[in-house]
Amino acid sequence: VAKYPPLEENVQRDADELATIVYTSGSTGKPKGVMLSFYNMAYAAEGGMEVLGVSSEERMLSYLPLAHVFERTFVELASLYAGFHLYFAESLDTFVQDLQRAQPTLFLSVPRLWVKFQHGVLQKLPKKKLDRLLKIPVVNKLIKKKILKGLGLDKVKLAGSGSAPLASDVLDWYRNLGLELLEGYGMSENFAYSHMSKPGRSRTGYVGESAPGVETRISPEGEIQIKSPATMMGYYKDEEKTRETFTEDGFLKTGDKGEIDEMGRLKITGRIKEIFKTSKGKYIAPAPIENRLMSHDAIEMVCVSGANQTQPHALVMLAEESRPKMADEAFRKEIEESFKKLIADVNKTVDPHEQLAFITVMSDEWSIENSFLTPTMKLKRNVVEDAYQEQVENWYAQRQPVIWQ
Description:
The structure is a single chain. The protein has helices at 38-52, 69-82, 95-102, 111-124, 127-134, 137-151, 168-176, 239-245, 286-293, 329-349, 381-387, 389-398, and strands spanning 18-23, 33-37, 59-62, 85-88, 106-109, 158-161, 181-185, 195-196, 209-210, 215-218, 223-227, 234-235, 252-260, 266-271, 276-277, 283-284, 299-305, 313-318, 359-361, 402-404. By secondary structure, the protein is of the alpha/beta class. It folds into 2 domains: 18-270, Rossmann fold; 275-404, ANL, C-terminal domain (GMP Synthetase, Chain A, domain 3, 2-Layer Sandwich). The protein has a 5-stranded mixed β-sheet with strand order 5-6-7-8-9. A hairpin with a 5-residue loop joins strand 13 (252-260) and strand 14 (266-271). It is globular, with a radius of gyration of 22 Å. The protein starts with 17 loop residues before the first strand and ends with a strand.
């Protein structure tokens, strides 16, 4: 670098100039290029540190793709602002070892990893046995500490989850271990700066209050709309989509449905693009049903579908520890009985038109490599539905509560 003179002396950019283009995950369609200004990025990074109370003493492990908006916010900017210690994961295969090496005090992750951690623990220590041990005062603290240390999370002061809803059972499970897992909400279009739960003010199923400078409202149709200095300039080379995404008074249409409680905490109730209509003319939001199904220890991922069918159905991918047993007849019988009960339990909690017709246990593994998941491990619903479109009619024709792919 020293061999060459700078291309331009004293480069200084205006706050409202384009700084970067971040592409959306593509979980609901083609990725869009989000244009962000220098001011958008600076405001989000400073505001995020204020909300989380980040100091130079923190330790954080980076593991998501560096192009992801969350990594851009915290790894690229917040770490420089605060000067905290930053570690990088070698790979997802070494993730737990990397956590134990980094000993993070700040750990923000995605739902699938929180679920995988939980399943890993329950594989070694079944839930009923763990619950019994946690009720014994003498061993309660010891067990909690041992589990968190085994996960590399025993030094964590602030734990968060974002990018998709996390089942309330999973949240409560971690909180029962003494880790106050807080949900947050943000998107590429506002540089991941929108909502965050606060310690002592969190509510299960809610993603927290508006961050400083963020205005939030619910439209008459139930859509969450947000306005803040971190909101994007628009979509790259797509003026029409930009116009569609903003209201006349400058609020960003998030595409998510939600509600706000009396303390200003936001709850995500579904995604508008994910809502489908059955042959009976009833509309169904899959996310709440999926969250109920995710309470089962053997399920790692689920996709509720059923457009133009009489009732919805669920496609489930078993947890990593359970998948190798799928050929075992005794295991299959056990899963079938367990899933029959799960369907019955879930169907009691939803409206008649939302009740599941069946669960299909998938032999396919959904991954980033085969394009079923985004780089942040969110399910690409349209890809999943397209992949099994030709098999759906046969599944309905079987009239069985549990079907194996």
